[in-house]
Amino acid sequence: MEQAQQFIVIVPAAGVGKRMQANCPKQYLLINNESILSHTVMRLLSHPRIAQVILALGEHDQYFNESELARHKDIIRVKGGAERVDSVLSGLQVVDRQKYPWVLVHDAARPCVSHEDIDNLINQCLSNHCGGILATPVRDTMKRGIAKASEINAIKNTVDREQLWHALTPQLYKTVELTHAIEQALVQGFLITDEASAMEHANHKSLLVSASSENIKITHPNDLALAEFYLNKQAKS
């Protein structure tokens, strides 16, 4: 029987996570005595269709070499950049495009992603011959403010949530198309917040693949406890 197509994942992990108010980059904070980064990477590598992970790390990262990840045969380390998009592009530049015509990109601080959601993303993208992202529909009433969130604010108007989605990761695209889209957007000075935004700018279609709300991104201190709860729940099931 023919082996299922294998994939590579880029994990941008060069950030410092200032909103976590921690004394180390947030990806090295511990949950159940294991770093967030380790939880995330090992969750990805345990998927039967993921062969390798490319980690884009900060130039002065003092923690990675002390971790078990540094000795893992299926992890490739590259130099990350000042912004997420720079780290993703750094990872794309070392991908073997013949071996991996499709590439996944996943946030380092999303350790709770499920294999089922990764399967759904891969299957829908391949069957539709276009890239896409995991996402969850917006459930809350959405408000647009008249000032930045860090300042005294007031409501400008209510935003229709009918077709709004929370963008998650992984995001899956054809390797060549994503590379060209990011390079083009950077040259034109377009703000890239995720891979989908670069693909939108290049007029490529993206699928929205509904995913579990457990796939949270650890951003604030309170998220650690929630991620621990989800990881423990998933381990039992």
Textual characterization of the structure:
This protein is of the alpha/beta class and 237 residues long. The protein has a single domain (7-236), classed as Spore Coat Polysaccharide Biosynthesis Protein SpsA, Chain A. The protein has helices spanning 36-45, 84-92, 115-128, 175-187, 195-201, 221-236, and strands spanning 7-13, 30-31, 34-35, 50-57, 75-79, 102-105, 132-137, 142-145, 155-159, 165-174, 207-210. Strand 2 (30-31) and strand 3 form a beta hairpin. The protein is globular, with a radius of gyration of 18 Å.
How are the SSEs ordered, and which strands pair?
Layout: E1 7-13, E2 30-31, E3 34-35, H1 36-45, E4 50-57, E5 75-79, H2 84-92, E6 102-105, H3 115-128, E7 132-137, E8 142-145, E9 155-159, E10 165-174, H4 175-187, H5 195-201, E11 207-210, H6 221-236
Parallel strand pairs: 1-4, 1-6, 4-5, 7-11
Antiparallel strand pairs: 2-3, 6-10, 7-10, 8-9
Helix pairs in contact: 4-5
